[in-house]
Amino acid sequence: MLNYLSPSERRHTARGGSREILDRVGDKWSLSVIETLCHGPLRFNELKKQVEGISQRMLTLTLRHLERDGLVTRTMFATIPPRVDYELTPLGFKLLKPVTELVDWLRENSEEIEAAQKSFDRQTVAAPLP
């Protein structure tokens, strides 16, 4: 049996800063960055190559947010040219299990989700709103 939360119960489960973190961790770029960094530290350009479709600006913003939330560390090396590595923190590694499960669920169910979306879109076009 499914257990649904009422709107007031949902507000109590994620409010304030926790809601912000859920929004961020749930966005597609954060999930991709976290999943990519689970294999070890990467330089910015290596990370950009592995996170398909992300722009330089979006990767910069995503990394800053993840660093602020304590999920990613940024280490600068005094070399020429300067080198910066990004890696998951212990807190970021704790997040890996649910993130990996979510990503796996998305991969396993993407075809079913696409089929449902197409069906919905066909029905919506066939029956316009009053």
- Termini separation comes to 34 Å
User: What's the gyration radius in Å?
Assistant: 19 Å
* Main sheet: strand order: 1-3-2
- Report the structural category: mainly alpha
Count of individual helical segments: 6
Question: Spans with pLDDT under 50 lasting ≥5 residues?
Answer: none
β content, as a range?
Answer: 5-15%
Q: Which shape, going by the Cα principal axes?
A: elongated
Please count the beta strands (DSSP E, at least 2 residues each).
3
List SSEs in N-to-C order.
HHHEHHEEH
Q: Give the % helix.
A: 55-70%
Query: Could you report the average pLDDT, rounded to the nearest whole number?
Result: 84
Characterize the biggest β-sheet.
3 strands, antiparallel
Can you put this structure into words, describing what you see?
This protein has 130 residues and is mostly helical. The protein is 65% helix and 11% strand. The protein has six helices and three strands. Strands 1-3-2 form a three-stranded antiparallel sheet. Strand 2 (72-77) and strand 3 (83-88) form a beta hairpin. It is elongated, with a radius of gyration of 19 Å. The two termini are 34 Å apart. The model has no long low-confidence stretch (mean pLDDT 84).
